[in-house]
Design brief:
The complex is a heterodimer. Chain A is of the alpha+beta class. Chain A folds into three domains: 114 residues, no CATH class; 87 residues; 142 residues, no CATH class. Classes of the chains: A alpha+beta, B mainly alpha.
Amino acid sequence: MNEDDMRKEEINQRKIGREKKRKIKIMVSYQKERGWLEEMALQGWFLENISLGIVYTFVKGEPKRMLYDIDRFSLPKKPTLEEIRHKEMFLEMAQELGWREVTHGEDMTYYFAREYEEGGVNELHNDPESRRFLAAKFRRFLSNYAKQQVFWAAVIVLVNIFEKLAQIWTREDFSLAWFDWFTLIYVIICNFFAVYLWKLGIRTEKELSMSRQEWEDSVNPDNHKTVRKLIWTNRGLNKFLRSQEEQGWLLTSVTPTKYSFEKNPGGNQIYTMDSKSLTNRRRKSANQGKFEDGKDWTGINNDWEIASVHDAEEKGWNFVCALENRAIIYRGEAGEVQPLNDAKYDNSLRWISLIGEYGFYLLCCGILGGIVGVIVSFLSN
Amino acid sequence: MEENLQKKYIPMTETTYYTLLSVTVPRHGYAIMQYVSGLTKGRIVLGTGTLYTMVGRLVADGIIVTVPNDEGKKAYQITDTGLELLELETARLKKQLADGESVLGQEGTEYE
């Protein structure tokens, strides 16, 4: 080792434990977050503090393979002595078994760390049961947070209503235009935030119920992908899914615009989509009664799916996935399956089954409202 | 014993069963982990979070209690309720095993 290297080494040694680094990063996924923290530790940066959920402070140390994990130990508003003792017990036991409490966020999520151990249990929660408990804790926390947002939106609306009532009561016009704007923007932001938190809760629950390995497999881009695409017809759907299959991607689930695929060497398969209206048409031509439900205003009745699956399986199709209660996608060996529906429906617009009847009514109402508005404003001029 | 405890714990998960077995004598956290992996020859290794989540529930339900340990660490021991549960579960498992063996043991049995 020459002199230069020695000096560098010395400077490095001096930095250990002293030099700090601050990074701002928005991490939505806890699994991703801990992967990142472990990568930082491999580079010799150890987590010291997290503030506001986005500012990470690291301290310099000898590069090591570390493990990070999280848990929540929230107590109810009026904890009993037993509950306080439990929290003590949890923290003590974590320490006894080698997990050091690093820090906790403002939301009282605790971060634990331990050195990696070859062949050891390298996860805080290593069985499905306790993982489910953990996931449920986080889900509850995020859902409550979402509910709070809705509550505060309601409060501000009430205050606004009181302001209006006060104006009527006192017969004075002290109209506060800025307050109306504030209310509107506040309510919109709160609602967006609430929806976001609610969805995040569902996502976090799913993620934390998985073991590390399971999660890594589920996000591995070699095995999974999603494609955003608007497909209008049955023929288009079949063409798109067949071209994906030729590249080795098999469909696993759909939303109106998002198609999820799994890496899988496919065969020569074709696809078809069935919906309530098509099922009804089939039943009509077979002189069977239609599926109609007077109580079903929003199109959530999915009795037709039973008949649809029955028909499809008779003709050799295999179920792939359902789009809520509006459509079902089937897969079948080309040449072996009989067409499920008449070919004349292949180019018919399938988007009504995608957005749902309810969505269709909303769209119609919106267009109608717009036309009426234009006419009224035209007449009043 | 309270009926809802029976409902909650029987049938019992494997990890709960082995944890209860390990605290028939007072043991602290690390000792529970070691005992269980030793008894099952490494088949069941309790993670830290797994252990404290479970022990927390068991203490809350009065199935195990904390007892002072010489080294100042907290140790856990099964209560009478816990023992009763353990015996009930063992009896249930015996019956389950006997049923399984009697069906699987018959030759030419058709499984449906």
